[in-house]
Amino acid sequence: MNVQSPEKNGSDGRAVLSARGVSKSFGAVEALKNVDFAVRSGEVVALIGDNGAGKSTFINAITGVFAPDAGEITFEGEPVRFGSPHDARERGIETVYQDLAVAPQLDAVGNIFLGRERYRPGFLGWLGFLDQPRMRQETEEQLSELNVRIRDLGKPLSTFSGGQRQGVAVARAVMWASKVVIMDEPTAALGVAQVEMVLDLIRRVRETGIPVVFISHNMPHVFDVADRICVLRLGEMVTELDPKKNTTDDAVAAMTGAVRTRRGGAR
Amino acid sequence: MTGPQTDPGQTQEPGRRLAGLSSVLIVGILAFLVVVFTILNGTAFLNFGNFVNIAVDASVLLLLGVGMTFVIITAGIDLSVGSVLVLSGVVGGQVMVALSGTSEQVQNYQFPNQAIGIPAGIAAGLLTGLVFGLFNGLLITRLKMQPFIVTLGTLGIGLGLAQILTGGTNVRFVPTAIQSQIGTREFFGFLPVPVVISLVVAVIAGVVLAKCGFGRYTYAIGSNAEAARRVGIDVDRHLLKVYALSGLLAGLAGLLDLSRFNTTSIGAHTADNLASISAVVIGGTSLFGGIGTMIGTVVGTFIPAVLRNGFIIQGVQAFWQEVAVGVVLILAVFIDQRRRSAEERM
Q1: Is residue B209 part of a domain?
Q2: Where are the transmembrane segments (chain B) (predicted)?
Q3: What is the pTM of this model?
Q4: Res. A252: pLDDT tops 80
Q5: What residue of A is the nearest CA neighbor of B341?
């Protein structure tokens, strides 16, 4: 068994969110095999792996999209079992999904406050009237604090480019996350300037002490922002790399299994 | 390919232009029709009394359209509204007849207990609509069935039940008070009650759609149901409410119809579902979901009504109205599709 204590590796600080021995099968396919993982406050952990390595499955398993078949998930020192992504969200874990999950016919404010609408005070609020000016103002304040520029807050996202939509999805996650931000391929569809914005946003979130789990294929982006790099291959957590000591070649080798990994060698 | 300098602001122009076009277009078409019929017919068309007639004719369809607007914005459809209208009218009418007096009294148009019978009938009619709407919603959300198929099924069930209840004939001896007090009554001598009821419902529903959380969730679900689900919106529960609302308003429409004619009209509503869907779509609501306004639905309801009225005054066969509405409908859907594909290209 390659059980590895999550406390042993990585940076200082206690684990905010950790997984131990997580497994998940879909029929005969073992998508995740006994995966250990931990993220501590103030760090950016990159999760990398080839297509089908189980990156998104792992994120789904720890954020409540589906329950793992085996294993334990610990959040802020307590074992948890999120029944839905909404449960995870309520505890302060925000996820940016690969498919964005925005409503294109709503504007940026509508999307950012979706499911968290602010209502007018008093009787009108009791009747269900939305407080649109307040939501817009809060959005503007938060976005300028995060240094995010969104083209036009009042236009439906369907008039935005893919990158601009992604900007809204990322801004929404960062704005609401109080404990952990998880980003599944947040830079995949972006232009150069927007990638810079997202990477900058990730660093900014780290400064506030909120850890970021960052899934990506893009090695330059990973080595640019990550403090640690966890490598998944065929459903197994095969190794952990240090971006200061390891190179992109090491990462690619670990992802593809071209060479024996350090951990494989240590056993 | 003109060059690399096309900035993002330009690529989205076609989408936005068409989106703007559709709302301007429908108001423009309605204004154009009014002008044309005024030129052709003068004050025979352009007078307050005639406009009130048009509004009365449109009032029942407008109620169906209000519910249908919510349903279509969620990217659903409700084909059962005409049947629910008929069934609610039948149930309401039969309850009124049964409770307003003995069968002998009623057949002599005496309704000693109508103070109980009429409110009970109204409640029974509304309840029938609500229950049918909930039934639609439960089948769609619990059994994960297509709204088109579910409501096609309940269309048959509703109309069949109405005919079973009545033996296929219309309900007779309905208390005449509902006609004199509701159906043909005019507030201040010029505002017909059916028009007031349907416009008040449309205004309230329009405010809810544009300004309230209920409307916001309706748009969000039609725009991306999965995104709504992930942020914790109970999508099934909301859809249930939307179909229940559509059923309830169809029930109200059935009672309004009953009060206007003092009897049911079982055979007269088989095309109401398509007429209300046309009105909603002409009004700029997208069959793909996520887009639509209540004011659009009001205008979209009045275009066929104005056409019918104008053609009758002009002496043109009223059947031309159906042809004209068909053309406008196709145009509206075409514009909607162009708008969508323009968006997807970005």
Answers
A1: yes
A2: 20-40, 52-73, 79-99, 120-141, 147-166, 187-210, 279-306, 318-336
A3: 0.86
A4: yes
A5: A158
